[in-house]
Amino acid sequence: VVCLSVYLFYTARDVPTLPVSGGGLSLGKGGYDMQGVIAPVATGTILEVFSTALTMIPLLRRTLLNNNHLENIRTLASQVHYTPMYYPVHRASNEEWEIAKAQQESSVSLKSMTTTPLKHQFRTINDYANAYRSGTHTPTDVMKSSLRAVRDFENAGLNIFSSIIPENVLAQAAASDMRHKQGQPLSLFDGVPVAFKDMIDVGGHVICNGQHRSTCKSAHTDDPIVARFRAAGAIIFGVTVMTEGGVTPLGWSAHFQGPFSAYSPHHYSGGSSSGSAVAVATGIVPVAIGFDGGGSIRIPASMSGVHGLGATFSRIPFNNKTDTTMIKAGPLATSALDVGLAYELIADRLPGHFYSALYDGDARGPPPPHTAGFEDTQDLTGVRIGIFEEWFNDADPEVVAKCKEAVAVLVKKGATVVDISIPHLQWMSLSHGIKISTEFALGFDTVFHSNWDLLEPNTQITIGLGKTMTALEVISAEKLRAWTFHYVRDLYATHNLTVIANPTVGVKPPELSDEAKISGENNTPLTMKLLKYIFMGNFIGMPGYSVPVGYISEDVPPGQQKKSPLMLPVGFHMMANHWNEHHLLRLANALDMEYAEHRLRPPVFFVDALEKRTRLATWYKTETGGAVPVEQEVEDVDSF
Length: 640
Hints:
By secondary structure, this protein is an alpha+beta fold. The protein contains 24 helices and 19 strands.
């Protein structure tokens, strides 16, 4: 075996791609074509062996790619007359820009909504602000309750944060106490805890990008997103766990041993902004920031039962990862209103920033962000929802049923469903995979060749595949990206669409095995299922939003002492045209009015910091054997 491996390593370094044969593919024609991919599935020792073999032997990598017929992307690209598209940026016409400016100036800021006009099972930004304003709570008391919950969760095995500094949190809370006592809060966010994905600089914290702790670096300044929250008086609560480099949408980090789903320790939370989603779902914070290169905000929002917005590409300025062409920022939150409040705070153009320069040479930047129409939820006449029926229905029946109920809610309020069709979804999806994996491989090139052993096996495989793809395949993917960009924009124009709707994730949250917890999981077929509906927003830069719309019941795994079934969240996804986040916020708010009252708090891990109650379910304590402290004072916060 060793001799054969050495032979293959040295003699099969230039395995050819498959020739273009046409395959009967004609650009712009054909029906629904999404199908699974051919790839092994592995965890544990098998994964480690498979990773070593795949990264060492080019023949295996190229064969795996050839088995999924990437040559069909070249076939389609040869028929595209657009130049390859690198950054998916739509530069609005002057009329579009001026309309957005007028809407920003005429619409009332969401900060004027001082109450949440619905019954909520989760604490919102306004709940915190009203509690401080009334004097019933102080930020310090609330932060102590939240810090205690994080400690108790970690003692019970749920790791949400990669970096948290309790004394820093309490110092910020004390400063907020004083401002509220003097009647001079900096904004609605003053004293409200906010968490940030481990991908941008948060001053005073170590930032790891989900990688091995030995590679972490100290951040001495704040990223623009963090700085905007800090200037508004928000409490910078901590940095949340993410998957290594954002490589997988499953959500589990073998390096940081977490997080699992807030709703079940036996299921994935969704990723890669997993910690941010779980921090919101468990009640630790009402809003957290994530980043989305392949659904990494919207997938964990769906699987963790919270709201999540992946904004238009280059809408929200941030500093790290701006050299990639897929990643965009956005908030995860307890409600559509909280998403909107965070969006208003962080979406304004930042003069001199790379994104402003990319848009128009930093002249005036993208169309101004706004939340016009947010409260217009009762009459949705004129809202047109594009649905590709075969695509929509290609999911677990329970998921489809829940999402069709959400469509019915919007239709009952006056929205119209419009039948649409999008050809070549399979090859668009794989083109997205080509782009993001090659960009990922470039970003990890140095680490891969210098500290290969510090990477998780699944990460090694992704880098290996990314560096195996040819320049011809990358440019073909960029040409298909350009065609898709124009085709979908034409769909919006031709049918006067407001959004295109689908399930967020077409399967119920997958189970998390004990083996996967140790070294991760490589499961490309499952990954492609998770990306089926949301890749488009990253591929062509359009904004997407996941709204929680119910739950699917699942029997408790054998041996677990719990009588009632698990209730796992379902998300409904909407994608709007470039720069039209306000449509997503309005429709998410309309759905929130219907669903908020019926949302379920996680039965296993949940804290209501305003009531100073931490939930650690009895069945979980029985399962692990031993008591977990439910109510403790946090006097020993320094030992947190």
